[in-house]
């Protein structure tokens, strides 16, 4: 699976600048006026993972082959600025709201920077009110979806009943100003309501587009300070130069790394690793995924032909210098279908014919 994050916010908060910086190339058209992004721009970026390089070096020391690195990926979707009234067709309206339905998580970009040369949209005044405008439009769009639902008739199934109960509770919650993800539902109601594809049911976090001198400020657990301008400058530097630049700012990780880390956190994702002469690769799965379903992320046939999984921790794989040393040191083990995978484990799946 691949994580997809939708970048949303009011016009002129720096969404497209941030998007370009994250992708390290100009895939979005950046301009100082609303609606510079006419179609959603989608870019796929690798997930930074230093473990892959270490594994590749171990494999290459034991053979004449240096395996390629294949990191996990994140898709960023840059969606044009929402304005007040978007749910009723204002600006570019529902066209953009519909694009948000396709992503796994929503990153709301909020303007904290002070550049007076960048004009604010009519809907924008300060970070708090900006968030309120965006959330209000998402809520109104969800209420339109809920208003279209019809009460089940003639011998409804249990799922139909749970779905309708969820619709009623969600309507009450959204009308009270809550996001769908914050409305209390039973497990059955949550499952039955997934088909509604409500925008405010998606996991969300906030990207505060700050001035460079404010990068080290703590803005709260769900808010990530990122300077789009700094990210653009980092994109032009080598890896070593990037680290030096970040250190000079008192920041350990780039905005990209912090955004991806938050995306993995709120979606409860982890990565397992495979290491061989063919490739060294990271695979993204939901926390709690068992071995047979993890194997299925590599190839769907693996779920049918799964025999067992040989597993070793990343730390032991490195300490014992690869598969051979880890096996001889008794650090690998065989696990069955129901084994729950852990983040960073190096795995070799045994598959039947």
Structural commentary:
This protein is of the alpha/beta class and 353 residues long. Helix content is 37%, strand content 19%. The chain has 13 helices and 12 strands. The strands form 3 sheets. It has a 6-stranded mixed sheet, with helices on both faces. A 3-stranded mixed sheet has the order 3-9-8, with helices on both faces. Helix 1 packs parallel to helix 7, helix 4 runs antiparallel to helix 5 and helix 5 crosses helix 6. The radius of gyration is 23 Å and the shape is flat. The mean pLDDT is 87.
Brief rundown of the structure:
The protein has 353 residues and is of the alpha/beta class. It is 37% helix and 19% strand.
Name its key features.
353 residues; 13 helices; 6-stranded mixed beta sheet; flat; 12 strands; alpha/beta; 3-stranded mixed beta sheet; 37% helix
Topology:
Blueprint: E1 3-8, H1 15-23, E2 41-46, H2 50-61, E3 69-70, E4 73-78, H3 94-100, E5 105-111, H4 127-147, H5 158-175, H6 187-193, E6 204-209, E7 223-226, H7 228-234, H8 239-248, H9 255-267, E8 269-275, E9 280-286, H10 291-298, H11 301-305, E10 306-312, H12 314-319, H13 323-328, E11 333-335, E12 346-351
Parallel strand pairs: 1-4, 1-5, 3-9, 5-6, 6-7
Antiparallel strand pairs: 2-4, 8-9, 10-11, 10-12
Helix content: 25-40%
Residue-averaged pLDDT: 87
* Strand order, sheet with most strands: 2-4-1-5-6-7
β content, as a range?
A: 15-25%
Secondary structure category: alpha/beta
Please report the distance between the alpha carbons of the first and last residues: 25 Å
Largest sheet: 6 strands, mixed
Please state the overall shape, judged from the principal axes of the Cα atoms: flat
Got a strand count? 12
